[in-house]
Amino acid sequence: MKVLFDTNVVLDLLLEREPFFATARRLFVLIESGRIEGVLCATSVTTLHYLLGRALDGRRADRAVQTLLELFAIAPVDGAVLREASMVQGVDFEDDVIAASARRSGAEYIITRDRMGFGDAKVPVSSPEEFLAFYGSISGRF
Known about the structure:
CATH class: Alpha Beta
Number of domains: 1
Number of strands: 5
CATH superfamily: 5'-nuclease
CATH topology: Rossmann fold
Distance between the termini: 16 Å
Structural class: alpha/beta
Strand content: 5-15%
Radius of gyration: 14 Å
Strand order of the largest sheet: 3-2-1-4-5
Number of helices: 7
Largest sheet: 5 strands, parallel
């Protein structure tokens, strides 16, 4: 199952943000164990590096991005993705780009804590908790 992660869920894990950290960790375990394929939008990687560099330091941001690039597939952002996102005229262009990238990469779900930003997504959008409940119901785990 191919699942695109929004930037906020990744930050929850990497910055150990409470009360979201434990749920984010459970999602990352699914990726690390190969039970789901994690995907990041290419723009999320640059955003994550910037935010981690500000919150931590440049070296730690570099290491975190290297780890993410090992764990996650990267959904490209090209002209077609940007054109598709620009046609949505949603609440948040960044989220529209992520949603278009998810669709074009074949992701089956988007996991985010900002569902409102993905109102027009053509890919099902789920909160981390909802996804874990759904995954548990189809796999018999969690």
